[in-house]
């Protein structure tokens, strides 16, 4: 009698490659995808990359292309870093094998939203660092692509600190704390003060700042869910569409760096975890804690 054994569960495997040519990209991508095709109990691998890279993969893979899902990275990365976490988690839940087994080749748009400002770059680096904790319960294998032709050298160097195979890896919580240590700009003197961060009040203000009805609703949801992190003492709003900002000053510190990232259980989410749902549907909300942890700031757009 033949007894089939299930492969031992492995940990989240978070890799990085920084090619500077098409040939270097293929040299890293093709063995990775072949590894995924040969892996037990896994669905076919997924390659999320720039269209030109997908064309190069089609040419190199030939008949094997049909076995691999190819996704233009502008179709996958449609919003903030937090939204990318939700997108990846949703894909694993719907398509991965046991324990989240799947190979994902992933190239965010480093010359677009991910690298367009200091704030955006910091959010993406936090996402890369915290991914090591968020996806630790899974057996997913990810290869993150940082093309040095389109990615700033400082961003590539910082990303190495978030990938265990880079030789420069640092503890994710230490890296996230370093990113959070940068002081946030002070709110403007004319920031609107609300008595309480209610959904109706935030929605009405956002609509008055020319945020569309659907976006105003989502921004209001994000604010009211963020208010569950701790009792709110002050609510400040400023900015105009699309960059609307809300700062919630809290009566106690928020120390959990994963607040708003960890998916809630199937039942009612505990305080601080409802943001997961909002981040799945609200692609353009970033949440930052102040360095002392006594306030959170949400920026839309």
UniProtKB/TrEMBL annotation:
Q: Which Pfam families match?
A: MEDS (PF14417)
Q: Where does the record place the MEDS domain? A: 13-164
The source's superkingdom equals Bacteria
What name is this protein filed under? Anti-sigma factor RsbA family regulatory protein
């Amino acid at each position: 009698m033949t007894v089939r054994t299930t492969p031992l569960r492995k940990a989240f495997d978070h890799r990085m490659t920084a090619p500077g040519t098409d040939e270097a990209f293929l040299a890293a991508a093709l063995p990775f995808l072949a590894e995924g095709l040969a892996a037990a109990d896994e669905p076919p691998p997924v390659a999320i990359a720039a269209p030109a890279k997908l064309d190069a993969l089609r040419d190199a893979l030939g008949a094997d292309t049909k076995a691999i899902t190819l996704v233009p990275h502008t179709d996958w990365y449609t919003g903030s870093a937090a939204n990318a976490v939700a997108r990846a988690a949703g894909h694993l839940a719907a398509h991965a094998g046991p324990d989240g087994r799947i190979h994902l080749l992933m190239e965010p748009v480093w010359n677009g939203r991910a690298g367009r400002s200091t704030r955006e770059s910091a959010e993406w680096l936090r996402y890369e660092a915290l991914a090591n904790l968020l996806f630790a319960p899974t057996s997913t294998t990810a290869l993150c692509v940082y093309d040095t032709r389109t990615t700033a050298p400082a961003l590539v160097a910082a990303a190495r600190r978030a990938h265990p195979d880079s030789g420069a890896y640092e503890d994710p919580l230490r890296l996230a704390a370093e990113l959070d240590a940068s002081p946030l700009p002070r709110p403007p003197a004319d920031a609107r003060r609300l008595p309480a961060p209610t959904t109706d009040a935030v929605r009405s203000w956002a609509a008055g700042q020319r945020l569309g009805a659907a976006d105003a609703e989502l921004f209001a949801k994000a604010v009211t869910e963020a208010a569950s992190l701790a009792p709110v003492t002050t609510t400040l709003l400023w900015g105009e569409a699309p960059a609307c900002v809300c700062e919630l000053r809290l009566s106690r510190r928020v120390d959990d760096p994963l607040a708003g990232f960890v998916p809630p259980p199937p039942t009612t989410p505990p305080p601080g975890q409802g943001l997961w749902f909002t981040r799945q549907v609200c692609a353009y909300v970033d949440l930052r804690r102040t360095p002392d942890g006594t306030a959170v700031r949400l920026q839309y757009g």
